């Protein structure tokens, strides 16, 4: 009886980690499939606007009436708000993600606020002060300028910045808990943090 219990214990100690590893890998693969689907939506948007990236907040704003803004709103004609692809399969903060409308962070929405981009945009907007533009036309011009400048950052090196990443570290691999990332060329993989010394 003791030998049977010992054998069962050994087998359990071998099988349980293997099963949890398979489950983590399955969640990561599902997340990567979501990112590929979102890339198709971004590319459809870009093809309608001469290759410009969507310029929106990096995450939708959570309001009592639901999420507002962000990539979820920009792509709603291509990818519905109710599409499961907006949520990472490993998301354990589902209440927070539902409030935000997505599990993913849109990096161009952050890059647009870098000094490198905003100084050039401010110069362009200053140069156009003499033109009679409505507020809406000015905002459109600002967004288009941001989209062009952020797009140039991606054109220099398609792997320097991700387009989308998990909004939290979700996919355990050994002692690391990495994020999945989508790049502008459509490739998907693990986002490497700069301090790891690895290229993305």
Features:
4-stranded antiparallel beta sheet, alpha+beta, 49% helix, 6 strands, two-stranded antiparallel ribbon
What is the number of beta strands? Answer: 6
Q: What percentage of the residues does DSSP assign to strands (E)?
A: 5-15%
Name the average pLDDT: 85
Count up the domains.
Answer: 1
Query: Termini separation (Å)?
Result: 52 Å
Low-confidence stretches: 194-200
Strand order of the largest sheet: 3-4-5-6
Number of helices: 6
User: What general form does the structure show?
Assistant: elongated
Q: How would you sum up the major sheet?
A: 4 strands, antiparallel
The chain-level structural class is alpha+beta
Radius of gyration: 21 Å
Fraction of residues in helix: 40-55%
SSE succession? HEEHHEHHHEEE
Short overview:
With 200 residues, the protein is of the alpha+beta class. The protein has 6 helices and 6 strands; from the N terminus they run αββααβαααβββ. Helix content is 49%, strand content 10%.
